[in-house]
Amino acid sequence: GVETEWTVKLPAGVFCEGMLSGDRVFFGVSDGYIYELSKKSGSIERRFYIGTAVTPNPFIWNGRLYSGEGLHFTHHARAYSFDLASGDYIGAYPTLGHTEGQPVIARHQNQELLFIVSGKDGIHAVDPLTMTQVWHRVEGHIDASLRVSDGRVFSGTALELEDKKNSRLSVAAYAFSDGKTLWENETPASSWVAPILDDGKAYYVFGEIYGQSNFGQLACYDQATGTPLWAIDTVASMNSMPVKAGNRIYAADQREHVNMFDLDTQSIAWSQPTSEKSTTALVAGVSYDPFRHLILYPSFTDGLYILDPDSGEILLRWMPQDKANPWQGTYSSVVVTQDFWYLSDGHGTVRCLRPRTLSKRPEARL
Fold this sequence. Notes:
About 0% of the residues lie in helices and about 45% in strands. The protein is built from no helices and 32 strands. Strand 22 (about 245) and strand 23 form a beta hairpin.
């Protein structure tokens, strides 16, 4: 059901999924470079020098390539800007923390801002052209990427490893133009990944990554007021990026179970075990393939699981047959296109897969 189109071994590990642009795919790598690969062959076309581990997903805006850097113990990390056409370095914005959370650019009322999260140094709103500060908020340890809707910037905080007892756990919405707090709510656990914004609601997943946890949660808030609408508790930490398809949210938990949350009934419709070998608290996010109506989950050690979105049935577990590049240490979710799936792992292996015989079903079924 799945064929390998090409495999490329990069010099070091890839923590986040790739970013597609035209006939290229970009990966941040822990050797301190962003690699630009050909989508057709996987050949390395260019690389952009950062210097420390490039953990977030690079992205492109207005002819520029942007990225953050660093791991938890990195300090004074920056967000970088490059000219995509020439490859030249344009500039960088400095912080006091680490910028491993995904930077984003958003627009509201003819203003465009680059939002950077920097651990305990909080949120930075930056002019993406000049890379100068517009506003800055320190409201706790923030690793989760921000999301923006209708002039509101949504964030969540997490445990600070060096000061767990005094960590402030909350979700909040800030004004786009000046960072003023619009609402804030205390949370029962950390928010490590970005929320889902849809139909006036903000969906957050909560859990912990420092050690095993028997608690997780999916919670729904009103975007405008922050009013908690409902929550679904789980028996394991929720710390992987969720995905919404129709009236469902899919997310993996710390046990490497893939869960389907039914938003109509506000319940867990199914929870499918996958790998039982993972020893990491961080797990990859699930992806939804709308072209084939499939859920894709790259486990940490046991290959790619392909599931039926309706029942949770495991349709296929794919493992590479390439002995030189075995499946290992995967943290990143699958990038889905109409023809290919792109995967990367913590040891630097990048794969382009072609799904062949899996039946296609219309997205409208959701």
